[in-house]
Amino acid sequence: MNLFADAFAWIFSPDRLTGSLPLPEAIAQHLAFTFGSVLVAALIAIPAGWAIGHTGRGREFAVALSGAARAIPTLGLVVLLYLLVGVVYKSQAAVVAFVILAIPSILAGAYAGFEAIDRSTISAARAVGMTGRQILWKVEVPLGLPLLIGGVRSATLQVVATVTIATYVGLGGLGFYIIQGIQLRDTAQILGASILVVVLALALDGLFALLQRIVVPRGVAARTSRTPRPRRQAQPATAS
């Protein structure tokens, strides 16, 4: 308990507001890397995932590509890109690595959201005269949005935890305090910075969980809430 008390004392110490990297600035840098990387990944993965889900083509390639991207060690990729592009573009090197990490989850959420739609719904939309573009934007995108947000949620959690390694190439973020604490053998600093990373992850997870519920279309939410639960059948009495 004393260790956790020391960690919280480190977090709320007035010294965290001064120094070469004040704590609020480190948190801002951490969030900037996270949201910037996820945004770039979304701009790449969402159109590709929607195209796969809408046309039904390229799914096997996307699954293989996502699996290969997940297998790449992020720290090794950051260091490799840093060595290739040089110290001037170290921020870009880190962002590229985080984008590669975020793409698989967003891509899977994008095309899985379309694949989860009942085919009878698509057939009904065609039957009333909707064009392919109208089906995409008025049927598939709204119904697939919850799973897409789920993919973005997963990617964000992965990135916010992995951004701590950006310190290895001289960038900021909360990882700066963890690496510095290891060098100084300051357990309170290491634990305090780790707690802040966990708090950020939980806050972002809660935010996306709420957003995931909000984007559920009203008709789907109402139908789900009205669906009666199956009644449990009474067990026949056994003769003693």
Please provide a written account of the structure:
This protein is mostly helical and 240 residues long. It has one domain: Orthogonal Bundle (MetI-like fold). It contains ten helices and no strands. Helix 1 packs across helix 9 and helix 3 (59-71) packs antiparallel against helix 5 (90-115). The longest helix is centred in the N-terminal third of the chain and has 33 residues, at 23-55. 30% of the residues are buried. Residues 27-208 form the ABC transmembrane type-1 domain. One of its GO terms (biological process) is transmembrane transport. It is found in: Cell membrane; Membrane. Belongs to the binding-protein-dependent transport system permease family.
Mean model confidence by pLDDT? 85
Largest sheet: none
Give me the CATH architecture, please.
Answer: Orthogonal Bundle
Low-confidence stretches: none
Q: Tally the beta strands.
A: 0
For the record, the CATH class is: Mainly Alpha
End-to-end separation in angstroms reads 56 Å
What Rg is obtained from the alpha carbons, in whole angstroms?
23 Å
Shape: elongated
Query: How many helices in DSSP terms?
Result: 10
Helix content: over 70%
Structural class: mainly alpha
Task: Please report which band the strand proportion falls in: under 5%, 5-15%, 15-25%, 25-35%, 35-45% or over 45%.
Answer: under 5%
> Could you name the CATH homologous superfamily?
MetI-like
The topology string of helices and strands comes to: HHHHHHHHHH
The domain tally reads 1
CATH fold-level label: MetI-like fold
